[in-house]
Amino acid sequence: MRVCGLMSGTSLDGLDIAIVDFSMQPDRLHFDVKKFVTVPYSGELKSELLRLMDAQAALQPVSAMNMYLGELYARLLDEALHNTEIAMQSIDLISSHGQTIWHEPFAAGDSPFSRPNTMQIGDIAVLAEHSGIPVIGDFRTRDMAAGGQGAPLVPFADHYLFQTETEGRVLVNIGGIANITVLPPQKSGLDVIAYDTGPGNMVIDALISRYSAGTMHYDAHGAIAKKGTVNEPFLDGLLMEPYFSALPPKSTGRELFGAAYAERIWAEADKRNMADEDKISTITMLTARSIADEILKHYEKYQLKTVIVSGGGVHNETLLTFLKNLLPEGVEVMTSAEVGIDPDAKEAFVFALLGYLGFQRIPNSLPSATGAKRQTVMGKIAY
Predict the structure, then answer these.
(1) Burial tier of 291 (Cβ tally within 10 Å: 0-12, 13-18, 19+)
(2) Which of 32, 97, 162, 326 has the most CB atoms less than 10 A away?
(3) Which domains does the chain have, with CATH numbers?
(4) Considering the entire predicted model, what is its pTM?
(5) C-alpha of 285 from chain center
């Protein structure tokens, strides 16, 4: 079965497209990634999506954007396949994560109408109509209905593909938000655990935009962070954020670590007369520390030997150096490319996998990661 995985994350860089061939064999699931590409979003679209992520955003533009993204995803997929050996008609299924507009894993306030909730837009019926291909999507709500947080979902694939008999491993994904999957050795009797550790690239990117007056959108190779010096007292204060000490399962997003959070950091750093490069170095260390601190909590019990990193954060050399230096000697840090998956393609690949399994009615959630009462088959289908 040929599945197209579509992913647009909290960084809003663009649409990740992965074309994957799957076949279920008696011994294991076989897969072959045939193509991966990221199609960048226009500045206008990114700005509009950011505007719609505000809790006070009007309903009409959110609803309209839901329909527009369904059309856009179909068009971007068609354009990505133009002049390639992969025909649109060869794709059996599109599996779309959609664009998260809101993620609130706990009910807010005392209203009898409050519930844990999440919203990913990019309507699957519109995508199916414009592509002519069945679409599976809206994965997170099924896990929430079963008492979970609807996140993180990538750990299911980490467990499915990367657990070994001989060593504990940690899979780290550094997108807009960073998350970890802690895999014990098989037959150890320990549960797979996974959760969001906190900000990944999101706050770094926001500070870089402020630093460059909007001309830069990320810290290429961590070059600006490398020029600065980490302000340890300021960092210690940032690490007092209650999310970092909360127990898993837990998930977070732009609602906590978004634009308002970045603005507060910049303003507080200004009060301390910190150089701009020092602000960026410190916030880069915040991402590294919040990841490393969580890994260290499981280091001995889970016999951790290897840390495998994916997501856009792998390109930030300063961030990876910080992370390596925070972990014990003997823990190997590598990128997912070394185990066969392009670090940039991983999330789109994962949603292709979740869609493939969901379409086959095979359970595709990991309750130990999301906190759900039971495992479910996630995803709604539009033919």
Answers:
(1) buried
(2) 97
(3) 2-148+345-382 (3.30.420.40), 154-339 (3.30.420.40)
(4) 0.82
(5) 19
